[in-house]
Design goal:
Layout: H1 2-11, H2 19-41, H3 46-57, H4 61-67, H5 83-124, H6 133-162, H7 176-206, H8 208-217, H9 222-254, H10 261-292, H11 301-322
Length: about 325
């Protein structure tokens, strides 16, 4: 059957990816499978059964002409990915996930360093060395900007590495054997992905414990708890980004090229909103912390933002479903 499936995929390479064509392909596959099994029960060999099935179902030009299905013009034809291209793409996505995740962790660590140094000099003043409280803030800012600068360079580097795969946004096709191989790889990776996501969620949920614990000892120690909170949450986000990028590579290869124009537009809108709300949430977190010293409760802005972001995605999807125009 694998040979037959490969042959069927090749037959439909030049046809548009519409629901009608997909339905036709599934009907042909079902008929070819039934015929193949019938021939095997009659005692035909593997090669004989395959040859008979292909000869009976091999020509679909008359069928597509009757249904009014026009082949894709050469200008609209999308590339067929090779095994080397798929390997290069998945490797690049994995590396990009690592550098982006590490960059996010460095950004969180930079903010944590700023808060830590500011609290350290404010609580102890290090008067023996004639250091003023402002010195702590200055050192913290320097350390934060250095870490953020390194993180931004990682983001840029990752983006440049992935630019070479922009052509895939216009669509692509996968040979049947490679598609099965990718599906197997995704299934093998599923357990690792679930463990990483669960671990990341647990780290993010437990990270506020540092704030509560430090505050319960002494209110002046709350800032230290916030620093630990930022680092621990940053590790959780690193797990989301790194393993999410690997999972995303499999999803893009197996599903993205089958997305409709409406679905692609929906994904773009949701990502655009997320690109605004998360930096805004971080700004609110830092503002309420440094200006109003509400480190004890302002961490809640992140789970609230996550809930609102997910709600927006669902609401937008429902609205688009009700109003497809």
């Amino acid at each position: 059957m694998e040979t037959i499936m490969v042959y069927l995929e090749n037959m439909f390479v030049g046809l548009p990816k519409t629901p009608e064509v997909e339905h036709l392909k599934q009907e042909l596959l079902s008929g070819m499978e039934d015929k193949y099994l019938e021939l095997k029960r009659e005692g035909k060999s593997e090669n004989e059964a395959i040859g008979i099935v292909i000869s009976e179902f091999g020509n679909i030009e008359e069928l597509t002409a009757e249904l009014g299905i026009q082949p894709i013009s050469p200008e609209e034809t999308v590339p067929v990915l090779t095994e080397e291209e798929i390997y290069t793409y998945t490797t690049a996505k994995r590396n990009a996930g690592f550098w982006i995740g590490l960059g996010v962790l460095l950004c969180a660590s930079g903010v944590a360093f700023l808060i830590f140094m500011d609290a350290l000099f404010e609580n102890y003043a290090i008067s023996a060395a004639n250091r003023s409280v402002e010195t702590g803030a200055v050192l913290g800012l320097i350390g934060m900007f250095v870490l953020i600068a390194i993180a931004v360079s990682m983001f840029i580097y990752s983006g440049m590495k992935l630019e070479r795969f922009n052509y895939m946004e216009k669509g692509f096709q996968l040979p049947y054997t490679l598609k099965m191989s990718i599906q197997h790889s995704r299934e093998s990776f599923a357990l690792t992905y679930r463990i990483a996501i669960i671990t990341g969620v647990c780290l993010c949920i437990l990270s506020p414990v540092f704030i509560f614990g430090a505050s319960s000892i002494n209110d002046n120690y709350a800032s230290y708890g916030v620093s630990a909170f930022m680092v621990m949450a940053g590790v959780g986000v690193f797990l989301f980004v790194y393993y999410g990028n690997i999972q995303g590579a499999y999803t893009n290869l197996l599903e993205k090229h089958q997305l409709t124009v409406e679905k692609k537009q929906e994904v773009k809108v949701v990502r655009a909103v997320e690109a605004i709300v998360w930096p805004l949430a971080t700004a609110i977190f830092l503002f309420t912390g440094f200006v109003y010293q509400r480190w004890d409760i302002n961490w809640a802005i992140f789970p609230i933002t996550g809930i609102l972001s997910g709600s927006f995605s669902n609401v937008y999807h429902i609205m688009k479903s009700k109003n497809p125009s």
